[in-house]
Specification:
Layout lengths: L1 H6 L8 H16 L5 E2 L4 H4 L7 E6 L4 E5 L5 E2 L4 H13 L1 H4 L29 H8 L8 H15 L6 E2 L1 H10 L1 H12 L9 H12 L1 E3 L1 H12 L14 H14 L5 H7 L4 E3 L4 E6 L3 E6 L2 E2 L6 H13 L25 H13 L3 H9 L14 H8 L2 H10 L14 H7 L3 H20 L2 H12 L3
Antiparallel strand pairs: 1-10, 2-3, 2-9, 4-6, 5-6, 7-8, 8-9
Helix pairs in contact: 2-14, 4-6, 4-12, 6-9, 6-10, 7-10, 7-11, 8-10, 9-10, 15-17, 17-18, 17-19, 18-20, 18-21, 19-20, 20-21
The protein binds glutamic acid.
């Protein structure tokens, strides 16, 4: 099935080679961006070279492309937050989760000691929200089971590709995490955790989750699972509920890029989440997922190359959520067009003929649709219009579209036979004359002649 789809160009990005060539160009242009600084609050992040740069993509049909340092493991850091939230919603439902955490951008830095007016963390993409959510996941299990539970989810979302853990990062995060401890106590004071929750255990779990490693390659599959409504495109495994995925994408869209979230939503218009390791998880819903990674960060904390890549991607392709897909011609649409599906176009054509809908027929003809195509009974639109007695449609199909009147359906009938069988005498006369015109034009090789002679047919109507 996969091969048939590939050969018939039925994948979501049919011209994958052309598409990936452009991706490589965008990658190269981001490579020129050498500003920013690598995070250095812990040695495990500071050790990375600012020159590292990788980008991988995976479409919802499992088409893969990688360029640059895409096999090097890095910690997800804040990129875990959308997944942590998605798992919680998958397990507990959105309503329950949002009893503990809001849905609003905070307008403050990601680790600010601040809560909403209802004394809840503003959203799951800031530290306060992620710390509370880590207390919601499998609260009755022990610490090891809880960690394994999340790892298992991530592995399934990444199609069994690389998901690791950096114990050194975890230890460093714990040692240097004063702000997160302060947040923990503040959250505890304001009763933000569920009853009986162990705040220190929640913090520990949060530090562990930030220390989970992936590569661009495996991360792109995880992003593609989000793009694909929760089903991993390379295994077909339903990992997350559709509710969990939709909620997650909505919050990534409004809150995923630190204090650049509003601008990112405006300029790029796609759900994304970045982390202090230089990772950017990007989702083009219903098309593909991407993981970009380059450790140099701008002043806000987003990967310099990652941001540049996302902006360039959307300035070339019409992936911005509010790009008009029908009329905005300056941008490229690499997606398979649904109108190109052969079965769909035959059905539409036949229905237009069946109902005598001239304007629809005209639209199809103008869009260079093959007006002579046949359905599964080998019937053309002309057969249908003749059977139904639609004179105008018959004239349009013959005069304007020059449909071959001699095509026989599976019972051996031409459109003329149909007109006679159903007692449409005017149409039978038109078709009889048209058969002559058509034969003459065919033999002289002059299609224009058909048109002039056909003008006389109009008078019959
Ligand atoms: N471990 C970091 C913290 O909690 C995550 C930072 C980030 O990637 O935003 O401070």
């Amino acid at each position: 099935m996969l091969l048939t789809k590939a050969f018939r160009k039925m994948f979501i990005v049919p011209d994958f080679q052309v598409f990936t060539q452009k991706i490589n160009e965008i990658y190269d242009s981001a490579l020129q961006q050498d500003g920013g600084q690598v995070a250095d609050y812990i040695p495990q992040l500071a050790k990375f070279s600012p020159h590292l740069w990788g980008a991988s993509l995976c479409t919802i049909d499992g088409q893969r492309h990688s360029v640059g340092d895409t096999k090097v493991p890095f910690c997800l850091q804040s990129c875990i937050k959308p997944l942590e939230y998605a798992i919680a919603v998958h397990e507990l439902g959105g309503e329950h989760v949002h009893r503990f955490v809001g849905k609003e951008p905070s307008g403050f830095r990601f680790n600010k000691l601040s809560l909403s007016e209802e004394d809840k963390p503003h959203n799951p993409m800031v530290n306060a929200g992620a710390i509370v959510i880590s207390s919601l996941i499998k609260p009755k299990s022990n610490k090891a089971e809880r960690f394994d539970y999340v790892m298992e989810f991530l592995k399934r979302a990444a199609g069994a590709e690389y998901v690791g853990f950096s114990n050194a990062t975890f230890q460093s995060e714990r040692e240097t995490g004063d702000r997160n401890y302060a947040l923990g106590y503040y959250l505890k004071e304001k009763k933000c955790f569920p009853e009986n929750a162990d705040m220190i255990a929640a913090l520990d779990f949060y530090f562990q989750l930030c220390s989970i490693e992936m590569t661009c390659e495996s991360g792109s599959v995880m992003a593609a699972t989000l793009a694909n409504g929760g089903i991993c495109p390379i295994t077909g495994d339903r990992v997350l509920s559709t509710e969990a995925v939709r909620n997650t994408l909505s919050l990534m869209h409004s809150c995923g890029m630190y204090d650049f979230s509003g601008q990112f939503a405006f300029h790029v218009g796609l759900p994304a989440k970045s982390g202090v390791s230089g990772a950017v998880l990007l989702v083009v819903p219903n098309v593909m997922g991407m993981m970009c990674w380059s450790p140099s960060l701008d002043r806000i904390g987003n990967s310099v190359r990652g941001i540049h890549f996302c902006q360039e991607l959307v300035s070339h392709f019409n992936f911005h959520h509010y790009d008009n897909l029908r009329h905005f011609t300056k941008k490229h649409d690499p997606r398979r067009s649904l109108d190109d599906e052969p079965n769909k176009s035959v059905v539409n054509l036949m229905f237009a003929a069946y109902s005598g809908d001239i304007s629809a027929l005209r639209r199809f003809a103008l869009s260079t649709l093959d007006m002579e195509q046949r359905d599964y009974d080998s019937r053309t639109a002309l057969h249908i219009a003749a059977s139904e007695g639609h004179v105008d449609a018959v004239i349009f199909l013959t005069e304007e579209c020059k449909v071959n009147p001699f095509i026989k359906d599976r019972w051996g009938n031409t459109p003329l036979d149909d007109a006679r069988q159903f007692g449409h005498h005017v149409i039978a006369t038109i078709l009889q004359q048209y058969q002559h015109v058509y034969t003459d034009a065919e033999s002289s090789g002059n299609k224009e002649e058909q048109k002039t002679t056909m003008d006389s047919l109009k008078s019959i109507n």
